[in-house]
Design a protein that fits this description.
By secondary structure, this protein is mostly helical. The chain has helices at 9-27, 46-57, 80-89, 105-116, 120-134, 138-150, 167-172; strands spanning 34-38, 64-68, 154-157, 162-165.
Length: 182
């Protein structure tokens, strides 16, 4: 194909949006619906949000399921993401909002028991500490466990075929009292 004609920036942006809409329309078919997951939309720039809005409101785009996540504690009603969502809501597009709460202590216990292949009772002191440090936030749980592993406070002993940890050493380690504060 020949190179596209040089255009001023605004027209170049519009051409990109049209081509991208055509691309989505071409691959999102009844036989093969398209699911797109976008994380951390609170950090999306204005051009990206405009493109998303154009795709969602595009009259010829069907069979597209867009899932977007954002941290509601990082946006207010004047945030560009919220303004964009308000514009989309004015159309006939269906938007569902789900608020995800932190995990309960029992869920953290089950998660860690499953992760470390241990019984609930044996893992309880560790999972209680993890819950205390993370307040049940799944992202922080992941980061905290990685930190324990990287600092060799949580180790897999291949000869025993199990995970070992020393709760006292974990408590003494200079990891913030509450990862949420971090």
């Amino acid at each position: 194909q020949p190179k596209p004609q040089k255009l001023p920036p605004t027209e170049t942006q519009k051409r990109f949006e049209m081509v991208f809409q055509d691309f989505v329309q071409a691959i999102a078919r009844k036989e093969h619906p398209l699911v797109v997951f976008l994380d951390d939309l609170q950090w999306a720039d204005s051009n990206s949000l405009r493109l998303l809005e154009q795709i969602i409101l595009g009259p010829d785009i069907q069979y597209l399921f867009l899932i977007g996540t954002y941290r509601d504690n990082e946006v207010d009603s004047s945030h560009l993401l919220m303004v964009t969502l308000d514009e989309i809501k004015k159309s006939d597009q269906v938007i569902h909002n789900l608020h995800l709460s932190p995990l309960l202590e029992s869920h953290v216990n089950q998660l860690i028991a499953d992760t470390l292949h241990e019984k609930d009772k044996s893992i309880k002191p560790l999972s209680n500490l993890v819950f205390e440090k993370t307040q049940g936030n799944p992202f922080f749980i992941d980061q905290f466990l990685k930190s324990l592993y990287e600092n060799r406070l949580l180790e897999f002993k291949a000869e025993e075929g199990k995970w070992n940890w020393d709760l006292k050493s974990i408590r003494e380690k200079d990891i913030t009292d509450n990862v949420v504060e971090l």
